[in-house]
Amino acid sequence: MRNYSSASLVRVRSTGSVPLGSPSLCWGPSNILGLLDCAAEQLMVLREFQSSLDTCERGLESLGGLGELEDGGMKYAELKSAFCIVGIQALAELNKWQGVLCWVLQYYGKPEKLPAKILQMCILLYRKVGEPATMQEATSHWLNYPANSSVPGFGPVAELYLLHILLPCGRLAEAKELVLGPVGNLAFGEDQRKAALEMVENQRRYTPPPTPSSTLSSTLAPSIGTIPQRGSVSPRLGAVLRLLHQGLIVARAHLQSLPIQRALLAAFLLYLLLVRVDPAALSTAFPWISNLLRTLRHMWAAMFGPYHRSR
Questions:
Q1: How many Cβ atoms sit within 10 Å of the Cβ of residue 286?
Q2: Is the pLDDT at 311 greater than 60, yes or no?
Q3: Measured distance CA(279)–CA(289) in Å, rounded
Q4: Which of 40, 86, 187, 232 supports an S-S bond with 158, CB 3.0-4.6 Å?
Q5: Above 50 in pLDDT, residue 246?
Q6: What does the DSSP 8-state code read for residue 66?
Q7: Contact, 279 vs 288, CB < 8 A?
Q8: Predicted TM-score (pTM) of this structure
Q9: How far apart are CA 189 and CA 280, in angstroms?
């Protein structure tokens, strides 16, 4: 569609502006090819996306009145697919991608009747805009339709369905079933199935399913409070650490040349660590700080505390 002869463009300009219902024009294969050239020129050369979409719709409507045809090696199905491909690109340029699937289905009727190349374009388009789930049901119908198993693009559609719909949507069970089921046996070779299963397992490791215990704990958390786990930081400890960080920033900016103020800052930081920090949070979040704090308190009690406390 990107290589156009000058003669075809001249024919485009002479036929593309004729209304669909004009009685002076007999719509034949050459006129439909002229509309296709016109739509492509409006899309890629003139950047008139709405005009290109309108021309595609005119061409598709004119194809509806013709039976199976062949002109220069281009059949009816290929012309219809070419108009839809240009129309999809025009809709994407117009930022009307939400209606691409509905627009295509009004000319093909059912998802399983879509050509493989058009289905691939729709999958990639909705994946790019962050809505891959829109194509899940339509692609599943297409892959499970028996007549499509012999289509040359069956394998690429199954691959795009796995990589750009099931895995991004977290449908890991469906992905594994696709690879091991009849669709995977037809679409993938042995090495491809192994690689696909490995991808599914890697995705499962990174996104483990929620367990009932975690769901129960998240439900009860607002009522019983948060219990800090080992290796986690409690909110109070996090606030103290943020305060320490801010103190270090201030010290580096303003107190670099004053030894006395450095000592005061160090004393303040020790105060935060020894007094303000919750020992219960430290024992679970940072055990080594908790042990150090306990040692310092024992030394303080032994040096300055009463005799019974030193023991």
A1: 18
A2: no
A3: 9
A4: 187
A5: yes
A6: S
A7: no
A8: 0.58
A9: 57
Give me 137's structure tokens. Answer: 């049901």
From CA 21, how far away is CA 7, in angstroms rounded?
25
Contact between residue 67 and residue 76 where contact means Cβ atoms under 8 Å apart? yes
Q: Give the pLDDT score at 295.
A: 77
- The CA-CA-CA angle for residues 136, 140, 146, to 5°, reads 165
Question: What is the per-residue DSSP string for 136-151?
Answer: HHHHHHHHT-GGGGGS
Contacts of 200 (CB under 8 A, 6+ apart): 167, 172, 175, 176, 179
Say how far apart CA 61 and CA 24 lie, in whole Å: 18
Quote the DSSP letter at residue 24.
Answer: T
Burial class, 43, CB count within 10 angstroms (exposed 0-12 / middle 13-18 / buried 19+): buried
With 50 as the cut, is the pLDDT of residue 236 above it? yes
DSSP annotation string for 146-186: GGGGGSTTHHHHHHHHIIIIITTTT-HHHHHHHHHSHHHHH
Please state, in angstroms and rounded to a whole number, the distance separating the CA atoms of residues 202 and 104: 35
Q: Please tell me the predicted confidence (pLDDT) of residue 171.
A: 93
DSSP assignment of 109-132, as one string?
A: SSGGGS-HHHHHHHHHHHHHTT-G
Residue at 94: amino acid letter:
L
* CA distance linking residue 85 with residue 46, whole number of Å: 17
Residue type, 184: G
Q: Which of 199, 170, 197 is nearest to 181 (CA)?
A: 197
